[in-house]
């Protein structure tokens, strides 16, 4: 019986090198595809972030700007008696409604109030600030008529008003601005008292009306609100470890971060110069407004970014600038 012996066989060194090269090429292709897909995903996500931040910012500022000068059923030419001390009347002047601060390289014009400049997370230089003053969106009706203009207001419970709030009281024929020196709630009776002691707090020693009249059950009381919208470093960081710029609002002294990714805010004010025709004749920066009641529209220019890395160029952030012009509904035209 003959037994055939077979020689052991294997791969040569050349074959091994070719196999390794093919493996490297295949692995490189997979890595390249993965990297391209990741960059595409980051780019798409970045574009969405840019659009989302812009949409939210423009919607918020547009809604606020349109309501500038809103006085309920009152019109601007009806008598409004401001009972605050003269030092506070300018800050609580319903005829002004809107103003701004033009951001420079290191400061703003006009000078920022200490409530803003004193913040630990102060506004970013080079960006503008929008100040809006007006009434709260909803008012509270009087539960009973006031026997005289010095009496406390009795409003339907529960009231959202608090002690030291500055409020506006109106019955569509006349109005009064004063500070609530005390608010007494009473859930049992369904009526809360809003006290306005003359000569106390910011109130001068004078009644709510100049002719001795008072306010009936058809009157409504509104809280007055001052809001500052501005850009400042946010509380979070991006994928690169850098602070993210955000849009903030300070409402009656309370600061809130609204949305990340807003890195610049520029504002131009449409001014109706004399002779008045309710149309904006020119658009100027905040420091070139001669009279706030001449502002009939606002042009918002915002720059938003992707927050995280979304492109291989520059610092890795996608950016886009958006512009929107808003008519102030209670004043003029675009």
Descriptive overview:
The chain is of the alpha+beta class and 334 residues long. Helices cover 19% and strands 33% of the residues. The protein has helices at 13-66, 86-89, 114-117; strands at residues 80-82, 98-103, 108-109, 129-135, 140-141, 153-156, 166-170, 175-179, 182-184, 191-195, 220-237, 243-251, 254-260, 262-271, 282-284, 295-305, 319-327. The strands form 3 sheets. Strands 1, 2, 3, 4, 5, 7, 8, 11, 12 and 13 form a 10-stranded mixed beta sheet that branches. Strands 15-14-16-17 form a 4-stranded antiparallel beta sheet, with helices on one face. A 3-stranded antiparallel beta sheet has the order 6-10-9, with no helix packed on it. The longest helix is centred in the first third of the chain and has 54 residues, at 13-66. The chain is elongated, with a radius of gyration of 31 Å. It starts with 12 loop residues before the first helix and ends in a 7-residue tail after the last strand. InterPro entries: N_methyl_site, PilW. Pfam families: PilW (PF16074). Keywords: Membrane, Transmembrane, Transmembrane helix.
Essential attributes:
334 residues; alpha+beta; ten-stranded mixed sheet
Topology:
Elements: H1 13-66, E1 80-82, H2 86-89, E2 98-103, E3 108-109, H3 114-117, E4 129-135, E5 140-141, E6 153-156, E7 166-170, E8 175-179, E9 182-184, E10 191-195, E11 220-237, E12 243-251, E13 254-260, E14 262-271, E15 282-284, E16 295-305, E17 319-327
Parallel strand pairs: 1-8
Antiparallel strand pairs: 2-3, 2-4, 4-11, 5-11, 6-10, 7-8, 7-11, 9-10, 11-12, 12-13, 14-15, 14-16, 16-17
Pfam families: PilW
Transmembrane segments: 12-31
Organism: Alkalimarinus sediminis
């Amino acid at each position: 019986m003959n037994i055939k012996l077979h020689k052991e066989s294997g791969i040569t060194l050349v074959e091994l090198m070719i196999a390794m090269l093919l493996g490297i090429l295949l692995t490189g292709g997979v890595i390249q595809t993965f990297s391209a897909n990741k960059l595409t995903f980051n780019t798409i996500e970045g574009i969405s972030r840019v659009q989302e931040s812009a949409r939210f910012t423009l919607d918020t500022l547009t809604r606020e700007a349109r309501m500038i000068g809103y006085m309920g059923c009152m019109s601007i030419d009806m008598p409004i008696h401001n009972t605050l001390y003269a030092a506070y009347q300018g800050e609580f002047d319903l005829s002004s409604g809107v103003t701004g601060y033009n951001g420079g390289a290191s400061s703003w014009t006009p000078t920022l109030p200490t409530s803003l400049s004193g913040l630990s997370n102060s506004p970013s230089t080079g960006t503008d600030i929008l100040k809006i003053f007006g009434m709260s969106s909803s008012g509270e009706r009087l539960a009973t008529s006031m026997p005289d203009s010095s009496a406390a207001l009795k409003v339907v419970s529960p009231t959202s008003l608090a002690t030291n709030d500055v409020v506006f009281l109106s019955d569509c024929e006349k109005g009064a601005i004063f500070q609530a020196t005390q608010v007494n709630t009473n859930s049992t009776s369904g009526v809360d008292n809003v006290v306005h002691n003359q000569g106390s707090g910011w109130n001068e020693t004078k009644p709510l009306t100049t002719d001795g009249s008072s306010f009936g059950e058809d009157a409504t009381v509104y809280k007055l609100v001052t809001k500052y919208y501005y850009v400042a470093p946010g509380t979070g960081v991006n994928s690169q470890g850098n602070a993210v710029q955000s849009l903030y609002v300070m409402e009656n002294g309370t600061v809130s971060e609204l949305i990340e990714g807003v890195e610049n805010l520029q504002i131009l004010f449409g001014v109706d110069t004399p002779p008045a025709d309710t149309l904006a004749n020119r658009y100027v920066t905040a420091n070139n407004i001669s009279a706030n009641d001449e502002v009939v529209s606002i042009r918002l220019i915002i720059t938003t970014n992707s927050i995280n890395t979304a492109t291989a160029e520059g610092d890795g952030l996608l950016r886009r600038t958006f512009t929107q012009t808003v008519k102030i509904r209670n004043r003029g035209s675009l």
